[in-house]
Write a structure and sequence with these properties.
The structure is a single chain. This protein has no helices and 31 strands. By secondary structure, the protein is mostly beta strands. It folds into three domains: about 90 residues, Jelly Rolls, CATH 2.60.120; about 110 residues, Immunoglobulin-like (Sandwich); about 180 residues, no CATH class. The strands form seven sheets. Strands 7, 8, 10, 11, 14, 15 and 16 form a seven-stranded mixed β-sheet that branches. The protein has a five-stranded antiparallel β-sheet with strand order 3-2-4-1-5, with no helix packed on it. Strands 22, 23, 24, 25 and 26 form a five-stranded antiparallel β-sheet that branches. The chain is elongated. The N and C termini lie far apart (about 80 Å).
Length: about 400
């Protein structure tokens, strides 16, 4: 048996590997065998004895550097092998995605955005790209010819970008899951429904009521260190808590969570001196962790209500001492049925759970029962005790063990 090996660079595209052989031939790419077959379907598999010369091919999409290996054997005599590769003129692309926040395997777009960019990369041999986009709320009732969004080629020559306008989708009133697919066209002037259009990839996303800030991280060389247990009665499970910082009243850490009876409870900590307001029920119920998010200079809390309409509700922080406005309905359901079953979530990810305050400290909250809800800050890696930046270590433990969770 003879073996040929080599490493080659492939520009993104479709390729056909050809083999004339007598007898057997095999193709490996990056150590994985690729099937060579007779295009006519008449002759046996390529790795077999042939009565004469046999023609076999393998069609593959490749991009970047790959290791190629060709195995060949002759059973008796008349050895012959000719092997080559052609790049086809077919259209192709690497992937598509929205320009949106990626979390938990999904892309999220906040309702405050009136548009979102959708992007296809690695596009080859296409004269145009379009993104048909629709809300899954009522099937494809908003998928009209005008919602096949034209994309523009970018300076690198292989990236194409389009813009989805939410006002075209039921006057901007659709939330939850959106489908957006990239299609390639031979010519930019081809009609949106041209028969020769080619699917590239999905750029699906979720349009949600609001997005929280990203979790803060400790500076280089420091780790989170436990500094204080928030207390309460042991054994009462909670949802994962959310944490945010407010500059009102000189600086406050706000912790929000849901009790097992679905009540919404909040704790407020003065970063300069300890607990300002202990755990307090602020009325209202929710089925999941609250979401704390800034809207301009206002700190808002969103929750998934327990009402029959499954609506998202909102309250606004109004001042130090656990002062919150009454709940108002957004009128948006977090449980929108999909045509295929299930639901499209208009709420999006909760959080954040770690924030940085203006003086530089980074705080994190975690735990799912009152006895384990803890606030962490960043200490030196070698610090086995409280963090070097810890400002809450002197909070009296007696204050932190109130029994409001009974």
């Amino acid at each position: 048996m003879l073996i040929w090996r080599g490493s080659f660079d492939f520009t993104a595209g479709s390729y056909v590997f050809h083999a004339f052989s007598n007898d057997g031939v095999r193709l490996y790419i990056d150590g994985v065998e690729k099937t060579l077959t007779d295009p006519s379907g008449v002759y046996p598999i390529a790795w077999s004895n042939h009565p004469g010369v046999q023609y076999d091919t393998a069609s593959l999409s490749l991009s970047g550097r790959h290791d190629i290996r060709i195995d060949y054997y002759e059973d008796q005599s008349n050895a012959r092998l000719k092997f080559w590769v052609d790049k086809t003129g077919g259209m192709s692309c690497t992937e598509a995605h929205p320009n949106a926040t990626f979390a938990g395997g999904k892309y999220y777009v906040p309702a405050s955005q009136s548009t979102v960019q959708v992007i296809a990369t690695g596009v080859q041999n296409a004269g145009g790209v379009r993104f048909p986009t629709w809300s899954l709320k009522n099937g494809q009732d908003d998928l009209s010819p005008s919602n096949w969004y034209d994309a523009a080629r970018q300076v690198d020559g292989t990236t194409w970008t389009g813009t989805v306008n939410f006002s075209n989708h039921n006057s901007g009133n659709d939330y939850g899951a959106y489908g957006s697919h990239a299609y390639l066209y031979e010519n930019a002037a081809d009609p949106y429904d041209a028969a020769d259009k080619q699917f590239c990839d999905a750029a699906d996303f979720y349009r949600v009521i609001a997005l929280p800030a990203s979790d803060a991280a400790c500076p280089l060389g420091k780790n989170f260190t436990v500094i204080n247990i928030m207390g309460g009665s042991a054994g009462v499970a909670l949802s994962p808590p959310s944490l945010e910082y407010s500059s009102l009243g000189g600086g406050r850490l706000i912790i929000a969570t849901r009790r097992t009876n679905n009540q919404i409870w909040v704790k407020e900590i003065d970063t300069a001196g300890g607990v300002l307001a202990d755990w307090r029920y602020i009325n209202g119920t929710t089925i999941d962790s609250p979401k704390l998010v800034y809207e301009g200079s206002n700190l808002a809390m969103y929750v998934k209500g327990t009402d029959a309409g499954k609506l998202i509700w909102k309250s606004t922080y109004t001042g130090a001492g656990n002062n919150w406005s009454g709940w108002t309905s957004t009128g948006i359901s977090y449980d929108i049925p999909e045509p295929s079953g299930g639901f499209t979530d208009a709420f999006g990810p909760a959080g954040p759970t770690a924030v940085q305050v203006p003086l530089g400290e980074v705080y994190r909250v975690r735990g799912t029962s009152p006895s384990s809800v803890e606030v962490n800050t960043c200490g030196a890696v070698s610090d086995a005790g409280n963090g070097a930046q810890c400002v809450l270590v002197n909070v009296p433990s007696a204050v932190e063990t109130s029994g409001v969770f009974d």
